Queue: 4 jobs
Job 1
Amino acid sequence: MVYRLNTTVRPLIWIEAHVEPHSHSRIEFQIKAKSNFKRRSTANNVEIIIPVPPDADSPSFKTNVGKVEYVLDKDAIIWRIKQFQGKQQTHRQQEGQADRHTRSHTHQASEY
């Protein structure tokens, strides 16, 4: 599901992103996802797409739920969650290097 909000409503899944540059080439992303629907409901096959700088390289991931994949063609990280329960919060942490000369291909984190 893709949607844009022009009014003040609560989205089904609220995403908070915190980007912290540590040096001239290292960036850390902390992403939190919180569901805003009933506990008895479940969202299936959720994909959260996080854009990254086009010169990103050597990503590493830590997540407590789902799988994370770096997609070079889209300059993005895709966080896939098979089932997301209502009134649940989860988070993911990612670090990467910015290198203008070397770029790696697809990296995938293991499911925790």
Job 2
Amino acid sequence: MSAVRILVVEDEPVIRLFVACILADAGFQVEAAANAVEALRQMGARSLLFDAVIIDVGLPAKWGRRARRRIARDAERIADRDRERS
């Protein structure tokens, strides 16, 4: 089975690196984005979905809301994919 894929979205570089390193050390496949725009690009550019997204709730409102809506839409696709794997 492949590693769980996690996207970390955090605008503070030190926090983003800290969270990404902890998750990677725990065996997760981690990608990071500095803001919601970058996160949306990463989510749109990947043919595979992320299994989880850790997002800073303090991101600027407009782009943060767009990212959260995208994550909610992808959640159903992730659930469908997981059901197919079972």
Job 3
Amino acid sequence: MKIRVLDIAYETMADGPGLRTSIYCAGCSHHCPGCHNPQSWDFNGGQEMSVRELLDIVKDVLAVHDVPLRALVVKRRARYDLARTVEELKV
């Protein structure tokens, strides 16, 4: 399975308490008026990555910080679109 990734933010505090790595996925079908991130709407945007590549990135981040995984932030604008993405990351 491939996932379109717009960005990976390392050591961000923008998506919850404490430092975390956030994976921002492409695609949102809502197209809300006034959206602060309309470039995320395109399901073909970003870079195609395999689930294995994303999991390897998560493992690398954990190894560098030597901490257990407590939270993984995967961002996609629409909840029902995000659900399909997160389902693929389950291991």
Job 4
Amino acid sequence: MRVAKTALILVFYFAANILTVVGNKWLISITGYRQPATLSQLHAMTCAVLGGLAMAIGCVPSKPLSLKLVSSVVLLAITTTLSVVLCLASLGYLPASFVQVGGGCCLTRVHRA
């Protein structure tokens, strides 16, 4: 049961990442949306809501907060937000195909046939 739960979480994680990159690429390139910081904020809010939901239904355990944990989370949040904003800003200028997205998000390499 634990292996199946872990596998399901991993599948959901990779699917969410791939859909996020493809969706952001579409928003920035096709529709002309030019607010990568807003996309990052929406992504962070969605992650917070889904994380809270996962804890509420017992999918992942909650942890008591300590000063060390809070400082680690703040540092991670700052670096992740900066990384996501820069990545989203680059999507307007760099081509990203489904093969590239799959290759960048998967554990194994995706090659064209």
